[in-house]
Design goal:
152 residues, mainly alpha, 2 domains, 51% helix
Length: 152
C-alpha cells in the first residue's frame, strides 16, 4: 500500500482505476522518494490543499479547498516552476507534469509528445502504421531498411 493515503472516494477529475493509481504511487515513491516533487504532486491531486506543486500557483480560488479540477490539472501539467526556486531535476519535473495529465486522461487518449522519449527514431510499430498510410513513407522506410541490410 502506498505511503500517500488514497481516499475511499477518488476525486472527480481522476479517471485512472484505483488499482492503477495505487500501483503508480508506490512505484513513483520508490523511484523518486516520499519528499519529492512527484510525491507532493500525488498528494495534491488526491487531497488538494495549498498551491500547485509545480507552478506554486494558488488554484483554490478556482477549485475551492478540495482536490484540483480537471482544468487545473491540465494547466499544472504544462506549468513551469517559478524561476527563483531551486531547480528540480528534469526527469522528476516531467514525471510530475505527466502525472497531472495522466490522472485525467481517457484510455483512448494519445500520450502528448512532450511526455514521450527523446529518441527520434520511430519504433517498429510506428513504422508499420506509417508504412500503411503514406506511399512516400512506405518507400522511404523500404529504402532505409534495404540500405541497412546491404550496408549493415
Amino acid at each position: 500500500m502506498p505511503a500517500i493515503e488514497v481516499p475511499d472516494r477518488l476525486p472527480p477529475a481522476i479517471t485512472l482505476p484505483r488499482e492503477v493509481l495505487e500501483f503508480a504511487i508506490s512505484q513513483h515513491l520508490e523511484e523518486f522518494g516520499e519528499s519529492s516533487l512527484v510525491a507532493r504532486t500525488w498528494g495534491w491531486i488526491l487531497h488538494g490543499g495549498g498551491p500547485g506543486p509545480i507552478s506554486h500557483m494558488e488554484w483554490s480560488e478556482f477549485d475551492g479547498a478540495g482536490p484540483p479540477s480537471r482544468a487545473t490539472l491540465a494547466a499544472e501539467s504544462t506549468a513551469d516552476q517559478p524561476p527563483l526556486l531551486p531547480r528540480t531535476p528534469w526527469t522528476e519535473l516531467n514525471k510530475a507534469r505527466f502525472i497531472c495529465w495522466w490522472c485525467t486522461a481517457n484510455p483512448e487518449d494519445e500520450i502528448p509528445a512532450r511526455f514521450r522519449g527523446w529518441d527520434p527514431r520511430p519504433t517498429p510499430l510506428s513504422w508499420r502504421k506509417a508504412r500503411s498510410r503514406s506511399p512516400w513513407v512506405r518507400s522511404t522506410i523500404s529504402e532505409s531498411l534495404a540500405d541497412a541490410h546491404v550496408n549493415g
